[in-house]
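task queued by scheduler; priority normal; single chain, no ligands, no partner chains; default sampling; output format set to C-alpha coordinates
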Amino acid sequence: MTSAPASPSSVEATTTLLKAELPRLEAHQQSLEKELAAVTERLESVRSALTALQTLSGVPHVLEASQEVQEAVAAVAEPVAEPVASVPAPRRSGAKKAAAKKTGPAKKPARNAKSSAAKPSAVKKSEAKSAAKADDKEQANGLTRQVLDILADAKGGTVRARDVAKVLGRDGSPGDINAVRSTLDRLVATSRADRAGRGLYRERA
Protein backbone atom coordinates (compact mmCIF):
# COMPACT_ATOMS: atom_id res chain seq x y z
CA MET A 1 0.00 0.00 0.00
CA THR A 2 1.55 3.33 -1.02
CA SER A 3 0.83 6.88 0.37
CA ALA A 4 -0.65 9.44 -1.88
CA PRO A 5 1.76 12.18 -2.96
CA ALA A 6 1.34 15.63 -1.34
CA SER A 7 -0.51 18.16 -3.36
CA PRO A 8 1.23 21.30 -4.53
CA SER A 9 -1.07 23.52 -2.43
CA SER A 10 -0.16 21.76 0.83
CA VAL A 11 3.55 22.09 0.05
CA GLU A 12 3.21 25.80 -0.57
CA ALA A 13 1.29 26.26 2.68
CA THR A 14 3.92 24.41 4.67
CA THR A 15 6.68 26.43 3.03
CA THR A 16 4.92 29.68 3.90
CA LEU A 17 4.54 28.64 7.55
CA LEU A 18 8.17 27.65 7.83
CA LYS A 19 9.33 30.92 6.28
CA ALA A 20 7.20 32.86 8.72
CA GLU A 21 8.60 30.92 11.69
CA LEU A 22 12.25 31.19 10.59
CA PRO A 23 12.82 34.87 11.58
CA ARG A 24 11.39 34.21 15.07
CA LEU A 25 13.68 31.24 15.53
CA GLU A 26 16.71 33.24 14.36
CA ALA A 27 15.88 36.10 16.73
CA HIS A 28 15.46 33.64 19.59
CA GLN A 29 18.78 32.03 18.68
CA GLN A 30 20.56 35.43 18.79
CA SER A 31 19.00 36.20 22.16
CA LEU A 32 20.17 32.89 23.56
CA GLU A 33 23.65 33.40 22.15
CA LYS A 34 23.88 36.82 23.89
CA GLU A 35 22.72 35.32 27.18
CA LEU A 36 25.22 32.49 26.78
CA ALA A 37 28.03 34.96 26.15
CA ALA A 38 27.10 36.98 29.25
CA VAL A 39 26.91 33.84 31.39
CA THR A 40 30.27 32.66 30.04
CA GLU A 41 31.90 36.02 30.85
CA ARG A 42 30.40 35.98 34.34
CA LEU A 43 31.60 32.46 34.86
CA GLU A 44 35.16 33.40 33.91
CA SER A 45 35.08 36.35 36.31
CA VAL A 46 33.88 34.15 39.17
CA ARG A 47 36.55 31.56 38.45
CA SER A 48 39.27 34.23 38.37
CA ALA A 49 38.07 35.72 41.65
CA LEU A 50 37.87 32.32 43.35
CA THR A 51 41.34 31.38 42.11
CA ALA A 52 42.80 34.64 43.41
CA LEU A 53 41.07 34.31 46.80
CA GLN A 54 42.21 30.72 47.17
CA THR A 55 45.76 31.76 46.35
CA LEU A 56 45.67 34.50 48.97
CA SER A 57 44.14 32.25 51.62
CA GLY A 58 47.14 29.92 51.33
CA VAL A 59 49.73 32.72 51.87
CA PRO A 60 50.31 33.79 55.53
CA HIS A 61 50.67 37.44 56.70
CA VAL A 62 48.88 38.89 53.69
CA LEU A 63 47.75 42.37 54.65
CA GLU A 64 45.90 43.41 51.48
CA ALA A 65 45.06 41.94 48.11
CA SER A 66 46.59 43.14 44.91
CA GLN A 67 44.84 45.58 42.60
CA GLU A 68 43.94 42.86 40.09
CA VAL A 69 42.22 40.75 42.76
CA GLN A 70 40.29 43.72 44.08
CA GLU A 71 39.06 44.54 40.58
CA ALA A 72 37.99 40.94 40.01
CA VAL A 73 36.10 40.78 43.34
CA ALA A 74 34.43 44.12 42.66
CA ALA A 75 33.35 42.94 39.21
CA VAL A 76 31.73 39.84 40.74
CA ALA A 77 30.23 41.43 43.87
CA GLU A 78 28.82 44.64 42.42
CA PRO A 79 25.88 44.37 40.00
CA VAL A 80 25.83 46.51 36.91
CA ALA A 81 24.09 49.75 37.74
CA GLU A 82 21.70 51.11 35.18
CA PRO A 83 22.20 54.77 34.32
CA VAL A 84 19.62 56.99 35.95
CA ALA A 85 18.53 60.02 34.01
CA SER A 86 19.09 63.19 35.96
CA VAL A 87 15.96 65.21 36.59
CA PRO A 88 16.56 68.96 36.18
CA ALA A 89 15.65 71.03 39.19
CA PRO A 90 12.59 73.24 38.77
CA ARG A 91 13.34 76.82 37.94
CA ARG A 92 12.72 79.24 40.74
CA SER A 93 13.51 82.47 38.94
CA GLY A 94 9.85 83.45 38.96
CA ALA A 95 9.56 82.82 42.71
CA LYS A 96 12.75 84.78 43.40
CA LYS A 97 11.55 87.71 41.31
CA ALA A 98 8.20 87.68 43.11
CA ALA A 99 9.94 87.59 46.49
CA ALA A 100 12.23 90.44 45.43
CA LYS A 101 9.22 92.50 44.38
CA LYS A 102 7.56 91.85 47.72
CA THR A 103 10.60 92.69 49.81
CA GLY A 104 11.69 95.68 47.66
CA PRO A 105 9.06 98.25 48.70
CA ALA A 106 9.29 97.17 52.35
CA LYS A 107 12.92 98.38 52.58
CA LYS A 108 12.19 101.93 51.41
CA PRO A 109 10.50 103.10 54.64
CA ALA A 110 13.51 101.82 56.58
CA ARG A 111 15.84 103.97 54.44
CA ASN A 112 13.58 106.97 54.90
CA ALA A 113 13.54 106.35 58.63
CA LYS A 114 17.35 106.15 58.70
CA SER A 115 17.71 109.37 56.73
CA SER A 116 15.19 111.19 58.94
CA ALA A 117 16.92 109.90 62.07
CA ALA A 118 20.33 110.90 60.70
CA LYS A 119 19.30 114.50 59.97
CA PRO A 120 18.84 115.59 63.64
CA SER A 121 22.14 113.99 64.62
CA ALA A 122 23.91 115.77 61.74
CA VAL A 123 22.38 119.07 62.83
CA LYS A 124 23.51 118.48 66.40
CA LYS A 125 27.05 117.69 65.25
CA SER A 126 27.13 120.84 63.13
CA GLU A 127 25.92 122.96 66.04
CA ALA A 128 28.51 121.39 68.34
CA LYS A 129 31.29 122.11 65.83
CA SER A 130 30.13 125.70 65.44
CA ALA A 131 30.06 126.18 69.20
CA ALA A 132 33.54 124.65 69.54
CA LYS A 133 34.89 126.94 66.82
CA ALA A 134 33.34 129.95 68.51
CA ASP A 135 34.92 128.96 71.84
CA ASP A 136 38.31 128.46 70.20
CA LYS A 137 38.06 131.82 68.44
CA GLU A 138 37.09 133.55 71.68
CA GLN A 139 39.97 131.93 73.53
CA ALA A 140 42.40 132.84 70.73
CA ASN A 141 41.25 136.45 70.78
CA GLY A 142 41.63 136.56 74.55
CA LEU A 143 45.14 135.10 74.36
CA THR A 144 46.07 137.58 71.61
CA ARG A 145 44.90 140.49 73.75
CA GLN A 146 46.89 139.24 76.73
CA VAL A 147 50.06 138.76 74.63
CA LEU A 148 49.73 142.28 73.21
CA ASP A 149 49.41 143.69 76.75
CA ILE A 150 52.56 141.83 77.84
CA LEU A 151 54.50 143.19 74.83
CA ALA A 152 53.30 146.71 75.70
CA ASP A 153 54.39 146.30 79.33
CA ALA A 154 57.88 145.33 78.07
CA LYS A 155 58.12 148.89 76.61
CA GLY A 156 60.18 147.94 73.56
CA GLY A 157 62.09 145.19 75.32
CA THR A 158 62.31 141.69 73.84
CA VAL A 159 60.50 138.70 75.32
CA ARG A 160 60.43 134.98 74.64
CA ALA A 161 57.46 132.72 74.29
CA ARG A 162 58.44 130.95 77.51
CA ASP A 163 58.51 134.31 79.37
CA VAL A 164 55.08 135.27 78.06
CA ALA A 165 53.65 131.87 79.10
CA LYS A 166 55.11 132.37 82.57
CA VAL A 167 53.55 135.85 82.89
CA LEU A 168 50.21 134.36 81.80
CA GLY A 169 50.47 131.90 84.66
CA ARG A 170 50.75 128.79 82.52
CA ASP A 171 52.67 125.72 83.66
CA GLY A 172 55.35 126.08 80.98
CA SER A 173 54.52 122.81 79.23
CA PRO A 174 55.51 122.44 75.58
CA GLY A 175 51.85 122.74 74.55
CA ASP A 176 51.39 126.04 76.37
CA ILE A 177 54.66 127.45 75.04
CA ASN A 178 53.79 126.43 71.47
CA ALA A 179 50.37 128.09 71.79
CA VAL A 180 52.01 131.36 72.91
CA ARG A 181 54.65 131.11 70.17
CA SER A 182 51.94 130.59 67.53
CA THR A 183 50.15 133.69 68.81
CA LEU A 184 53.36 135.74 68.65
CA ASP A 185 54.08 134.50 65.10
CA ARG A 186 50.54 135.42 64.07
CA LEU A 187 51.01 138.93 65.51
CA VAL A 188 54.26 139.29 63.55
CA ALA A 189 52.53 138.11 60.36
CA THR A 190 49.74 140.66 60.83
CA SER A 191 52.29 143.47 61.58
CA ARG A 192 51.09 143.86 65.17
CA ALA A 193 54.47 142.80 66.64
CA ASP A 194 58.09 142.58 65.54
CA ARG A 195 60.60 139.74 65.61
CA ALA A 196 63.81 140.95 67.25
CA GLY A 197 65.78 137.76 66.70
CA ARG A 198 65.45 134.02 66.87
CA GLY A 199 62.75 133.33 69.42
CA LEU A 200 62.63 137.02 70.49
CA TYR A 201 59.59 139.27 70.10
CA ARG A 202 58.76 142.87 70.97
CA GLU A 203 56.03 145.44 70.59
CA ARG A 204 55.50 146.98 67.17
CA ALA A 205 57.35 150.26 66.99
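post-processing summary
- The chain is about 70% helix and 5% strand.
- The first helix runs from residue 8 to 57.
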